[in-house]
What we know:
Elements: E1 3-11, E2 19-23, E3 39-49, E4 61-65
Antiparallel strand pairs: 1-2, 1-3, 3-4
Amino acid sequence: TDLAGYRIHYGTSAKAMSTVVTLANPSLTTYLVSNLSSGTWYFGLTAYASNGTESTLSNIGQKTIP
């Protein structure tokens, strides 16, 4: 009820998505992750509130970059 933004977690392994992008605007509906090298990348999303609580990770999606 106190949504402050989202965090995009991504990496080259579904078990180790070590890169995190914080989007401090809860109104955003799109974001482009750029400069990815060739390979398969995995993505998940969390939502966070202004009091610091964070949701569990969403279902993980993947994209293969040629």
